[in-house]
Amino acid sequence: MSHKSELIASDINAYLEAQQHKSLLRFITCGSVDDGKSSLIGRLLYESKMIFEDQLAALEADSKKVGTRGGELDFALLVDGLAAEREQGITIDVAYRFFSTEKRKFIVADTPGHEQYTRNMVTGASTADLAVILIDARKGVLTQTRRHSFLVSLLGIRRVVLAVNKMDLARYSQEVFDTILQEYRDFATQIDLKDITAIPISAVYGDNIVEAGSNMPWYRGPTLMHHLETVEVGDELPSKPFRLPVQWVNRPNHEFRGFAGLISSGTVHQGDRIRVLPSGRESKVARIVTADGDLPSAVAGQSVTLTLDSEIDISRGDVIAEGDAPPQVADQFEATVVWMHDDPMLRGRSYLMKIGTRTLTATVAPIKHKINVNTLEQTAAERLELNDIGVCELELDRPIPFDAYREDHTLGGFILIDRMSNNTVGAGLLSFALRRSENVHWQALDVGKKVRSQLKSQKSCVLWLTGLSGAGKSTIANLVEKRLLSMGRHTYLLDGDNVRHGLNKDLGFTAQDRVENIRRVAEVSKLMVDAGLIVLVSFISPFRSERRMARDLLEAGEFLEVFVDTPIAVAEQRDVKGLYKKARRGELKNFTGVDSPYEAPENADIRIDTQVVSPEEAADRIVAHLANAGMLSGA
User: Fold this and answer.
1) Residues 482-498: pLDDT tens digits?
2) Which domain holds residue 162?
3) In this structure, are 11 and 95 located in the same domain?
């Protein structure tokens, strides 16, 4: 490496000690396409002498081969590592780089400028203390400048460096710089960005990067490197209320029981009174244990194991908090979501939510609006598409301890995960708990599902028949119910068409309406199972995610998925209701199998091939399956 500290040769221990106690600044570079983000980071690495000699040689060779500087050093190539990035001259993925100076260590994330990679920018910004927002001096404030600035504000980054780049191509004009700065400040005021340091730079020639240079004598502020080395960040965390999300219950033997995790905010001392959420139980800190021994106190950013002076039931996902200033507990929230997947976010759909050290199920209640980042206008929305930013209500399957994201990023920030593919599909910020979540509690009843089922001499369950329109679901479900009734069993049949005459009469057939249709029916089915009934559900229910949601509402063994498997050609040939003909003529939009997808079950409990099995035989098979599973005998 080109840079060598004198301590490396004279006192290696002193050098390592100095490195260990340097402060760390995490920052991102963002802005529109081709504003020079990668070039800036490359220049910082070069000027801080954090490039190995072989890397420098490779950079010189690559600059001649694929560079954009006519054979001169192209610093962007130090960061744009993907072949696709080098070919297009743009950043696609988030590139993280480490470098250090005599005063501070840095981790910088180079984030993409293209709108289609906004999700990558959110990833890079989620852990940053400061944002360097670049603007091309020739182009001024652009759409992506506003988008990224809005996201920076949304994600709680309060310190911004406005780096007006390519001043060399704007003849180092102070007028150009002042005009851009005024326009940006006008927009920043609307999104509550106040701590803005504006610096005119040329990443290619190094003006105001490390040294001021002589091209802009009218600028008297700090260079970029000086500002990065001296800006104060992260000092507010230790002064906030103590929070430790429990990552692991450490029980190496019967004499030790500790609760390990990373302190997200505040300070804890031995002997402090703490409260555990969501249970609300209190205790005192007996020991603060680390690998290097016990500590009298610990602060935000440290990983520790706490032992308590009394036995309390604490599990992974619980939060140990300051006794006098605990977080709130709720299960319904207003949240802001940045959608990060090609498949839209739909009202009524359930996702896995990862928040802190806890994973649970979150259902999208009404989507209140989405935000136009250019005008900050709020517009009505029924779904969020890729890169949309919206405000919605979320209903969780259990109460959680939380702080608003603006107060605590760990207890207020979350990701949404698709239940089927396990892909991360969204990132979000909790704003506040909905008042109704504080007033609505589950009422304990003396008569429960088990007693109701015993009275009926059966085990309650859901038979969920899914398949295309015309597959024969309703016919088979009707036959099954008649057979069960003849055996003295207690049933109820929920049919897709019948339910739309009342409970779901307000819903259409868009994707979001189909999701909400199934969500409501699943909740009704759950209540009927609690009543001790055998519930037959005959719905197309085209999406695997909603069928999985319905299964997860019930206890193991209570949900049986019956796939009435009929090819589209056969179902269309039957077309008892004439619906396929209407759909083919364009008179019926969003019809499953024609212009709306059907996701067939991958592991149905029962599969009925209607091409070889008659409805009567199918009904017999289903009843036999129930009998073999013990559902037709006393609970």
Assistant:
1) 999 999 999 999 998 88
2) 6-230
3) yes
Q: What is the pLDDT of residues 239-294, one digit of tens each?
A: 899 999 999 999 988 889 999 999 999 999 999 999 999 999 999 999 999 988 99
Same domain, 189 and 121: yes
Q: Are residues 180 and 158 in the same domain?
A: yes
pLDDT at 3: 47
- Considering the domain boundaries, does residue 21 fall inside one? yes
Confidence of residue 98 (pLDDT cuts 50, 70, 90): confident
Residue 119 in any domain: the answer is yes
On whether residue 51 sits in a domain, the answer given is yes
Closest CA to 134 of 222, 27, 219, 25: 27
Q: What is the mean predicted confidence (pLDDT) over 96-104?
A: 82
Tell me: do 396 and 492 sit in the same domain. no
| Active-site position among 39, 541, 596, 633 | 541
Q: How far is 613 from 602, CA to CA, in rounded Å? A: 20
Please write the tens of the pLDDT for every residue from 226-251.
Answer: 999 999 876 677 889 999 999 999 99
- 246 and 370, same domain (yes or no): no
How far is the C-alpha of 541 from the C-alpha of 519, rounded, in Å? Answer: 10
Domain boundary among 297, 322, 347: 322
Q: Quick check: is 147 in a domain? A: yes
**CATH code for position 150:** 3.40.50.300
Distances (CA, A) of 103 to 6, 48, 50: 15, 11, 14
Model pTM score: 0.75
- 333 lies in the same domain as 316: no
Domain count, the chain: 4
Decide the pairing of beta strands 293-294 and 281-290. Answer: antiparallel
Residue-wise burial string across 134-146, b where 16 or more C-beta atoms lie within 10 A, e elsewhere: bbbbeeebbebbb
Backbone angles phi and psi of 388, in degrees to 5? -70, 150
Give the closest residue to 513 by CA, choosing from 572, 589, 421.
589
Is 119 found in the same domain as 200? yes
Going by pLDDT thresholds of 50, 70 and 90, the confidence category of residue 560 is very high
> For residue 409, what are the contacts with CB-CB under 8 A and spacing of at least 6?
126, 156, 264
> 478-513: string of b/e by CB count within 10 Å (b at 16+)?
bbbbebbeeeebbbebbbbeebeeeebeebeebbbb
The residue among 436, 465, 495 that closes a domain is: 436
pLDDT in tens, 117-130: 566 677 777 788 89
* 430 Cβ contact list (under 8 Å, min separation 6): 333, 334, 335, 355, 402, 403, 404, 405, 412, 413, 414
CA distances from 293 to 76, 310, 340, 466 (A): 45, 21, 43, 59
541 catalytic, yes or no?
A: yes
User: Is pLDDT at 327 greater than 50 in this prediction?
Assistant: yes
Q: Quick one: 251 exposed, middle or buried, by C-beta within 10 A (0-12, 13-18, 19+)?
A: exposed
Residue 336 has pLDDT above 80, yes or no: yes
- Whether residues 194 and 247 share a domain: the answer is no
